[in-house]
Amino acid sequence: MKWYLAKLVYRITCGDGKHTPQFDEQLRLIYAEDDFHAFQKARITGHLEEDNFLNSKQKPVLWKFIDVSELHALTEFIDGAELYSTIREEEAPENYIKITEQRASYILERSMQKCLPLN
Prior knowledge:
The chain is an alpha+beta fold. The protein contains two helices and four strands, in the order ββαββα. The chain has one domain (2-74, 87-115). It is 31% helix and 36% strand. A four-stranded antiparallel sheet has the order 2-1-4-3. Strand 1 and strand 2 (22-32) form a beta hairpin.
């Protein structure tokens, strides 16, 4: 049995779908005996987690599973190993950098609070 990293892709449609197409890419850990079983298990997970519901404006929202777009065997867990990389194009790079720094500060603050003893 081995661990795999699978990328599951969903299409998100809100209301009548007359909006910029949205896709959710999710990285999932899959434990399986080989590539074939890992792929099948990832597909089953994707289909089981399709969803539809009404949003706060009472418009239907549909999460439709598209497929597994990537599957990588994790041969060993190495400290600092790259698991995922994507390149984004941003119209406002300053805002992207600021948001990234804010998220990092939040994570640091939260992790420090968990380490401090309660008085």
